[in-house]
Structure formats: C-alpha cells, structure tokens
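Ticket #4471: structure output looks truncated?

Reporter: J.K.
Steps to reproduce: submitted the chain below (391 residues) through the standard prediction queue, then opened the result file.
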Amino acid sequence: MATKRTEDLAAETVGDMSAEKKKKEVRVWMDGCFDMVHFGHANAVRQGKEFGDKLLVGVHSDAEVTKHKGPPVYTEEERYKMVRAIKWVDEVIEDAPYVTTLETLEKYGCDFCVHGDDITTTADGVDTYHLVKAANKYKECKRTAGVSTTDLVGRMLLVTKTHHQRDDSIDEHHVGAISKVRTPHLHSAGPSSHSPWTGVSQFLTTTQKIIQFAEGREPKPGDKIVYVAGAFDLFHVGHVDFLEKAASLGDFLIVGIHTDPIVNRYKGSNYPIMNMHERTLSVLACRYVSEVVIGAPYSVTPDLMDHFKVDVVCHGMTPVMPDIDGADPYAEPKRRDKFINVDSKNNLTTQMIIERIIKHRLEYEERNRKKEEKERKILEHMKTTAQIKTG
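Returned output as attached by the reporter:
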C-alpha cells in the first residue's frame, strides 16, 4: 500500500514538473513587412528568439504593406517563404495585422512582442506598437546598423549609375580584380542618408556577428557533405529554393561565398549590390545551411574538396562562366564524378529583383522619400520632448 502511495506521489510530482515546464515556455511574437529579407531582419529575429523559447513571426500582407508603406518588392508568398527559411523562426503567421494588438498576442499564446529600436508607424503616423507598449507587453532589440530595406532599394535604384566601374587601363593579371572595383558611392542615395534608422551607412562586420549567426557544428562521421558556391547577392527566394534542394542531397551543406571582385567579374559592372560579408550573414541565417566558406575560390579545387571531404558539388541551372584562365570551374568535381546540376524549379534571379525596382522606380523613390520624411518628423519630436524634460 505504501509502495502504491509512493508511486502515486512520484507520478504526481513528475506530472507537476511536466506541467510547470510546459507553463514556463515563453512564446515571443515579432511581426513586420520583411520585404527583401536581409541579414538585418535575420539579426532582429535572432535577438527575438533569445527572449524566449518559441518565436512566432507575423508577416503583413501585400495590401497592408502597400497601405502603410508603399508597394513591397516581394509578394506576400515570397515574403512568407523567406521568413520561414530563417533558422531562428519557429512559426510564421500569415497576413498579420499591421498594428500589433493584445488580441493577436492572446490568440497565439504569446507573452509579449519584440521589435527593433527603430520607429514603425501606420499611414497616419501612429506607432504600430502603442497598444502592446501601453500594456507593458513590449520589448526591444537592437537594430542592425548599416542595412535596411530602404537602403537596399536605394542601392538598386543606383544600379543604372556605375558603382562598380571597371578601369580598363589597369592590368587585371598584374594587380588583381580587386583593384578594378571601386567602392559604391552609396552616400549619393539622397535624403535617406539623414535617417537614423534607414539611412545609408557602412555595415561593418565583426567576428562576434559571424559567431552569432553561425551554427558552430561540424559534420558527424558518415555525413554526406554537399558543397555549393555563388554570389548569393540580395538573398532571395530563388536562393532559398536552391539551397533547400541542395541540402536534401546530403546531411551537411557548405556554401562558398565568392569575393566581390569575383562576383563583379562574372556578374557585370554593377554587382554585387551587397558586399561579401553582408552576403555571408544572409546565407548563414538560412536554416538549410550548415557552414559557409567566406571568400571561396571561383573554381572548385582539389584542395577544397579534400579539405571539406565534399561528396557532392551542386550548381543551379544558370550558365557558368569559365574561370579567368578559361577553365571550367567545376572541372574537378566533374572529374571525380561528384557534380550535379540542381533544378530548384524557381527561376528568380537577383537581376529580376532589380528589374522590379527599376520598373517601379518612381513608386519606390516616393516610398523612400515618405518614409524618410516620417522618420525625420518623429526624430524631431523625440528631440523636442527630450529637451522639455531636461529643461
């Protein structure tokens, strides 16, 4: 009898512990447009996940984004897929309301909302988080300086102006391609440079940021290792679909990121839009990627394949430009019978994204101008309020 009672007490204790553990799960809500998802978005999501156990991310519909900000570059379906591909996201909520309400948090069982320390307002200038702030269910994370969707749109609007100008008077074989790529004059993007949140500023990567984004795991014995390489400029859903397909061919996906001069050589004088370190972080944030090689060689060399014990090398369906010496960059994996062309069934390219911007240039320029003006007014109001308080 005593034994039975002891067993019952033990079962009750385990049950209580289980219930307590379940009760203590902290569910975090984040939301946004997530247009042209970049490493700044991913870093905000990474920080949001650190506030709790489960991260739910609400993504606004095209209609909501257009109403409050202007036309999005990506469709809502593309934006849903991009956010799902961020490795810190546990669940995506489609067609999330633009103004975050307590009802939304309650509906999805979230304890609070997290957002970056920039300002987000409706078309009428109302803080989209005023309701959760008033209820003390709002927390902030740090915005990633040096990148924003507005900034990237500005860079693409400059694509018709040569920002990677080749100087044909320089001997490429003598000084290398890097000498032939001039720094993009992004400060000429106009008034956006005055915004403290979305203005153009130089992104400076650090080892700490790379560590935060990296998984930090190594392949296990017996893992099938897949290698792909490319520019991965303006990381988009075409890249996501390709990486998902490549990852399905093995157990550990390594992605080589080409240097800016290499990308400039095979993509043309206006590329890359994002520099190598920006592109590295964008790829590292993808849930299908296990490891990244920063500054990978254009040709897949025997040393690279042996060092990483590569079993399969993949390339998409896009044309492959010969290396600078005219050689096939995939000659070695082909020689080893380890090369595969992967068809992701998604033909979206970085060039197509830029063409969307150029096609609607005036709309996006106006969108950026309005956003800059709204942020400028908010900043002036904040300064005035601060002066009154200190005065």
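Triage note (M.O.): checked the attachment and the full token line is present. The chain is about 40% helix and 15% strand.
Status: closed, working as intended.
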